[in-house]
């Protein structure tokens, strides 16, 4: 099993907020959707 993190922070990607590897999706966005009980399909 590779030693990869599920969350990364890279200044080259959106100035460094924690995001999912290979994406420009900030972790805070997912947390916001879950807190608001929005569907992930939206």
Verbal overview:
By secondary structure, this protein is α+β, with helices and mostly antiparallel strands. It has one domain (1-42). 24% of the residues lie in helices and 10% in strands. The chain is built from one helix and two strands, in the order ββα. It has one helix at residues 27-36, and strands at 8-9, 18-19. Strands 1-2 form a two-stranded antiparallel ribbon. The chain starts with 7 loop residues before the first strand and ends in a 6-residue tail after the last helix. The model has no long low-confidence stretch (mean pLDDT 83).
TL;DR?
By secondary structure, the chain is of the alpha+beta class.
Radius of gyration: 12 Å
Q: Could you give the distance between the termini?
A: 32 Å
Structural class: alpha+beta
Largest beta-sheet characterization: 2 strands, antiparallel
Count of discrete alpha- or pi-helical segments spanning 4 or more residues: 1
Helix proportion: 10-25%
Strand content: 5-15%
Q: Strand-and-helix sequence, N→C?
A: EEH
Total beta-strand segments: 2
Could you tell me the mean pLDDT? 83
- Side by side, the strands of the main sheet go 1-2
